[in-house]
Amino acid sequence: MESAGEIVCCVALRDPILAHLLIPLARHPQVERIWIVRPKRLEQTALPKVRYVLVPTRWKPWRFLRMLWHCLRLGRRRQVRGFVSFNPIPYGLFSFVAAKLHRKPVHFGFIGSDWNVHVRGWLGRWLLPIIRRADFITVTGPNMRREMIERGVPADRIAVLPHGIDLDHFAVADPERARYTAIFVGNLIALKRVDLILEAFGRVAKTHPAARLCIVGDGPLAPDLKRQAQELGIAAAVDFAGYVDEVSPYLADARMIIIASEHEGLPFALIEGLCRGLVGVCTPVGTIPHLIADGENGLLFARGDAEALAQCINRLLDNEPFYRRLREASLRRRGDFTYAKASAIWEAFLGGAGHSESL
Asked: Of the candidates 28, 59, 175, 226, which lies 20 to 30 Å from 342 by C-alpha distance?
């Protein structure tokens, strides 16, 4: 893109994630407007330069057809210089069809499960030829980028897009005032292994009866997890906050953030927690090992190992100087997650100068 213009974004991500992804793009001087084709407006965040094309119908086939139609319609606009999408199925495909029909560049953004589930799975056989034809692809970290290259995606089209957040909104919190020992933020689904977190916390509670855990999020496993907390005898020590629009106050009220997932890209909640001053205790999946070095700025434990997770939590509770050292080392990376860092990556797609270092 040689001059400023409009971008079409077809998407249905949750509000906080979408805001984090689009604000750096909207702030780029080459972008005059972003058309967001989506079922609803972002309720908590006012994005700059945004116009919505809402497709609120609940019947998915009709919604998908209407979203595709709107992408095709918007693609006719002379001011539209390209299409941006996150998640290849189905929204990336809608963007791809419209972009190729109107001979405009298209971006595919991968944030974790979309690559792990869709492309690595049985759909990958016919998705990969489409992905290889994208003009620009963003990923969460070096591992995903390397795997794409191994599968034939041109290396010069793939960039690692840092998770940009508003550092003022996620200011460093005081651990001395924290109400919770640890916090989990995410969907209550099997992949996230919140059951493992509860199991580990049950062991921690035996030696640290004052420890408290906060579970922020909702999902199909919520009733089972609450029942598990009762059976473990830790129901009084675990707060199930449910889904919340604003997670920052909960993060400010904890000392550690736990990620026990079987698979991940790079969770935004982890970035938000680290920037708040929480110490990450995580499984070494996805891009997490490129962010957290075990024993240096956080702790890593093996997938599915509740005992190892309990030992990590106990280690941080029993050794305050060690906890402080990890926390301070983690906070030194706050500057890596600014909106400006993420905005600079979009140069490769928007046609700005000096983007080669980002790729």
From this structure: 175
